[in-house]
């Protein structure tokens, strides 16, 4: 969850949030943002690649622009996310597509870390209500992520 922008927003919508990140400084910022905005969330320090994902406990699991994983690490992360969702649970995923390399407005520089429709269909094809959309957005998420960006969104429910 990084510095907590997404986790805090979800908490503001009434969800009980578990904010997972490996960085103590990011978690300090997340806690301060939650306090500033008057919400609470459980902040857990861990690495998404080897965290002990609990079995079928979450109604919603989100991955938002966490494309620092190698392909092998990504498979472990996504397996954990799938395991943690309850049956019928909602998966939300947002990332950059390979076209992002043309824009240079943020995100990973390694093509193997970027998401394609085929990759997401393969990984989450067993889910129901699978929706994958690609679009170009003018994003402003700080100095390192500003300008036209090529993104891909996925929503799906676990069977």
Structure report:
This protein has 159 residues and is of the alpha/beta class. It is built from five helices and six strands, in the order H-E-H-E-E-H-E-H-H-E-E. Strands 3-4-6-5 form a four-stranded mixed sheet. It has a two-stranded parallel ribbon with strand order 1-2. Helix 1 packs parallel to helix 2 (24-37). The longest helix has 14 residues, at 24-37. It is globular, with a radius of gyration of 15 Å.
Question: Quick recap of the structure?
Answer:
This protein has 5 helices and 6 strands.
What are the segments in which pLDDT stays under 50 over at least 5 consecutive residues? none
Helix content: 25-40%
User: How would you sum up the major sheet?
Assistant: 4 strands, mixed
Shape: globular
Q: For the largest sheet, list the strands in their spatial order.
A: 3-4-6-5
Structural class: alpha/beta
Number of E strands: 6
**Average pLDDT rating:** 96
Termini separation (Å)? Answer: 25 Å
What's the alpha carbon Rg, rounded to whole Å?
Answer: 15 Å
Q: With helices defined by DSSP (H or I, 4 residues minimum), what is the helix count?
A: 5
Strand content is 25-35%
N-to-C SSE series? HEHEEHEHHEE
């Amino acid at each position: 969850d990084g510095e907590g922008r997404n986790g805090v927003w979800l908490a503001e919508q009434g969800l009980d949030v578990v904010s997972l990140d490996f960085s103590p400084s990011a978690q300090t910022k997340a806690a301060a943002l939650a306090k500033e905005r008057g919400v609470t969330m459980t902040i857990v320090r861990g690495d998404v690649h080897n965290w002990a994902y609990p079995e079928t406990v979450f109604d919603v699991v989100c991955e938002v622009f966490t494309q620092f994983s190698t392909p092998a690490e990504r498979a472990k992360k996504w397996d954990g996310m799938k395991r943690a969702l309850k049956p019928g649970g909602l998966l939300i995923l947002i990332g950059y597509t390979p076209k992002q390399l043309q824009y240079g407005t943020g995100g990973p520089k390694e093509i193997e870390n970027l998401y394609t429709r085929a990759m997401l269909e393969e990984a989450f094809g067993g889910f129901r209500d699978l929706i994958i959309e690609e679009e170009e957005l003018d994003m402003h998420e700080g100095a390192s992520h500003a300008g036209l960006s090529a993104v891909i969104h996925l929503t799906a429910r676990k069977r």
